[in-house]
Amino acid sequence: MSRIVCIDYGRKKLGIAMSDPLGITAQPFDTWHNLSRKQILDKIKDLIDDYGVDRIVVGLPLTLKGEKGKIADFAIEFVSFLRDNLHIKVVMWDERMSSKIAVRTLQALGKKPSKNRNKIDKIAASVILQDYMTFIGNSAGN
Questions:
Q1: How far is the C-alpha of 60 from the C-alpha of 72, rounded, in Å?
Q2: What pTM was computed for the model?
């Protein structure tokens, strides 16, 4: 079975989540800091090779009204870069509220978000990925 990787894209940090081999659950995987595009591409290629990744989901940061802003433009450009340099499917998925859910998740676990900033992005990526996998799972059954 193959896996799906999700990237919560930020200009300085990228939260990374990965599905289990059956594509049922999403788990926080890593947070990458201050990497060049080449370094990001190399790390993604390593994930593809090491884990059998066949798809990448990148969070699309829309406003609460569903509109694109400046940050969405950066994410869209990043997806174009990935599509130009990888030979697997790269899709965008609405990431609204994922960071807030990540913060609430940490709080529910009794952890202070301010002391766990490194975890917020990868938890947000897992929220985005789980939402995407739930959608494609529900769509496959209809």
A1: 6
A2: 0.88
